Amino acid sequence: MRFRDRAILVTGASRGIGAAIAKAFAAEGGTVIVNYRQDAEAAEGIAARCRAAGGEALAIAADVTSEEAVAAMAERIGEEVGRLDVVVNNAFAPYRFDPDRRARFPDVPWSAYERQFEGAVRATYHVCRAMLPLLGRSSSASIVNLASDLVTRPSIPYHDYTTAKAALVGFSRNLAAELGPRGIRVNCVAPGLVSPTEASAATKEEVREMLIAQTPLRRLATPEDVAGPVLFLAGPDGAFVTGQVLHVDGGLVMA
Amino acid sequence: MTTFAGHLPGLDREDVSWRRVSYESWGETAEIALPDLTEAQARALCRHVRENARARLKRMDVARIVAAIDGASERLLDRTHPLRREAERMLPVVTGYDRETVRLGLTSYLKTFQRPQLLRFLAEDFADPGMLDGFRPARKGGFVRASGPDLLLHVWAGNVPALSLWSLVCGLLVKAGTVGKLASAEPLTAGWFAGLVAEIDPEIGECLAIVWWKGGEEAGEAAFLAEADTVMAYGGNATLAALRAKIPVTTRFLPHGHRIGFGLVAREALDSRRAMALARLAAKDVVRYEQQGCYSPQMIFVERGGGVAPGEFARYLAHELAALAHRHPRRTLSSGEGASVAAWRGAQEMRATGDAAVLLGAPEDPFSVVHLDAATPLAPTGLNRTLALVSVDSLDEVPALVAPHRAFLQTAAIAAAPAALFRLAESLASVGVSRLAAFGAMASPEPGWHHDGRFSLLDLVTMTEIDQAAEAAAEGFAPYVD
């Protein structure tokens, strides 16, 4: 029970990777704030599964790209949970990983980059700022941001998405440098293609097989694969690790 | 919500008694209502199908039937079509196979029932498929016509999704009035397909019924068995023997029994690069439908002397099985299935104590691979991802090792250079192997293949010939005779 009496915020936790991370924290006794944007029913379902797994859970709706919504969420966490030890920035702007129909560079408008920056960097920026006061009171505070192995190896050039994730890696390292002296650690987990998730549903078999063929462990990541390394970086086992990017892609990227 | 199975032209749902069966897998449940016809209803349905087939189906051009089957396949290939969505949702719950297996399997299977592939089916068996539509000149002289049975009964078995479509389509292509008996373990796809055909071409829909009866239950079964002109049946030898005993001697009986698949890997396929790719393909063949289909490998013979030794290849294969289980989790095994896996593992462990075997995969893992270092005759495994890998000095030893199972042989996968492929094909053919496949494609036979070495369409038809002499004689009676 590595996270008993610890409170963990997971953004975008109503489905996919976020949901798996939330459940994994709950299974270690944590109190999980299941943040979601729209699907209240799904989020409540994940909260229920967190409780069933042995943790506490609270579902809070908030669009993490909105400063006001995030501030309101921080206030609610302060009132209802009273503490915050871990923030997992998992939410990202809706994106369809469809290698066959991805926009090629001349067709990617600047607005697409902006949208991904909003979803990746701006959301993380707002969440980190709003949660810092709560995190500052914890003796073992940690932030884990979800990046992508595409930053190091753009197997499919999703220009806007990957550029935003690259910026998130830079953002995280800077934050790690600044917050280290305050005892707050900041790391990234960089998964490869994760399946099954809604976002990856359009990725065709051929591409999956191409990635698998080049992956030493011979399969794609599952949402549950991502959860373990997130817990490692967030918890006591990762107490002396900060500013790192941990690739979770079966060895596709070795860095 | 209850899903009603089957397709019963001429019968009202209200007049039929339905047997409700619950299915449960992956944390979900489904209730399916299976039609339980009285003997009178069964006879009336057979008459309806037979009469409509005579009046309508037999008078249609094959091209029209091809168009209807193509249309039904097209709809089920469309992932946004409501029935396709229903199939992707229900079949994992009913059959226990994981969603991805069902989704990929449906697409790969339905692809083979599109118009170009159907034309290939026809061309494979008929030099001139026009003989299904009328008398055509025969090469030997005279004329010839092929006619399917008025009433063809399919008795399906097993839980492989959509497997019933294979024989269903063959029957329709030869214009057979068709009654199909659903397998309780996959009672959905044939009814859906029949419904789509009926929607596209209502006249064909009247010549086609999808029914169910409880295996061995006399009332409904006897009526269907008595009415059919031809019975095509699937299942184990005991089931087939019981069925054969109940069928009138004048009825054609076409049984398709259980099979044991196996593979052969030549040393030239075992270099540092290709061995791993091959292990993945072989693992896919094992995982696809949990070795329940007749095509899947249960034993793979691996030649010594390649860059990768057979024992190492076994380890690669075991890891690929472990990796594939993340995407395609093994379905929950029944207690009987679990017991046969455990019994097989137990037998391998006995062998392993003597150093002659290495068992890979723990009891809790969803797969087991045993590597047997001595040439071992083909033997069935415990199924559900249990595989034996046998070292041999030369693949030429394999035909003798599989020959004792002649009656159960069908598909063998082979990875070897062309000269070895053809040399081994000759000797494997002589011991009863009827299909040599590539690894990774064992469960996807090509359109127009010869199931169990037989002619899928030709076996169903009767040829009617007009002798050359009869034609010549007729000339003598013509009004224009000089």
Classify the oligomer.
Answer: heterodimer
The span between the termini of chain A is: 31 Å
- Under CATH, the topology of the largest domain in chain B is which? Aldehyde Dehydrogenase, Chain A, domain 1
User: What global shape of chain A is seen?
Assistant: globular
**CATH homology superfamily of chain A:** NAD(P)-binding Rossmann-like Domain
Task: Characterize the largest beta sheet of chain B: strand count, sense, and whether it forms a barrel.
Answer: 7 strands, mixed
Quick one: which chains have the greatest interface? A-B, 10 and 12 residues
Radius of gyration of chain A: 17 Å
CATH top level label of chain A: Alpha Beta
Give the uncertain stretches of chain B in residue-range form.
Answer: none
Number of helices of chain B: 16
SS-based structural class of chain B? alpha/beta
Q: Strands across the major sheet of chain B, in which order?
A: 13-14-15-12-11-16-17
Order of adjacent strands in the largest pleated sheet of chain A: 3-2-1-4-5-6-7
Strand percentage of chain B lies at 15-25%
CATH superfamily of the largest domain in chain B: Aldehyde Dehydrogenase, Chain A, domain 1
Order of helices and strands of chain A: EHEHEHEHEHEHHE
For this structure, the CATH topology of chain A is Rossmann fold
Catalytic activity (chain B): a long-chain fatty aldehyde + NADP(+) + CoA = a long-chain fatty acyl-CoA + NADPH + H(+)
Enzyme class (chain B): oxidoreductase
Protein name (chain B): Acyl-CoA reductase
Pfam families (chain B): LuxC (PF05893)
General description of the model:
Chain B: Belongs to the LuxC family. Chain B: GO terms for molecular function: acyl-CoA dehydrogenase activity; long-chain-fatty-acyl-CoA reductase activity. Chain B: InterPro entries: Ald_DH/histidinol_DH, CoA_reduct_LuxC. Chain B: It is an enzyme of class 1 (oxidoreductase). Chain B: Keywords: NADP, Oxidoreductase. The complex is a heterodimer of chains A (255) and B (482). Chain A has 255 residues and is of the alpha/beta class. In chain A, 43% of the residues lie in helices and 14% in strands. Chain A contains seven helices and seven strands, in the order E-H-E-H-E-H-E-H-E-H-E-H-H-E. Chain A has a seven-stranded parallel β-sheet, with helices on both faces. In chain A, helix 1 crosses helix 7, helix 3 runs parallel beside helix 4 (110-136) and helix 4 (110-136) runs parallel beside helix 5 (159-179). Chain A is globular. Chain B folds into two domains: 2-257 and 450-466, Aldehyde Dehydrogenase, Chain A, domain 1; 260-437, Aldehyde Dehydrogenase, Chain A, domain 2. Helix content of chain B is 40%, strand content 20%. In chain B, the strands form four sheets. Chain B has a seven-stranded mixed β-sheet with strand order 13-14-15-12-11-16-17, with helices on both faces. A five-stranded parallel β-sheet of chain B has the order 8-7-6-9-10, with helices on both faces. Chain B has a three-stranded mixed β-sheet with strand order 1-3-2. In chain B, helix 15 links the parallel strand 16 and strand 17. Chain B is globular and about 85 Å long. At the A-B interface, helix 6 of A face helix 4, helix 11 and helix 12 of B.
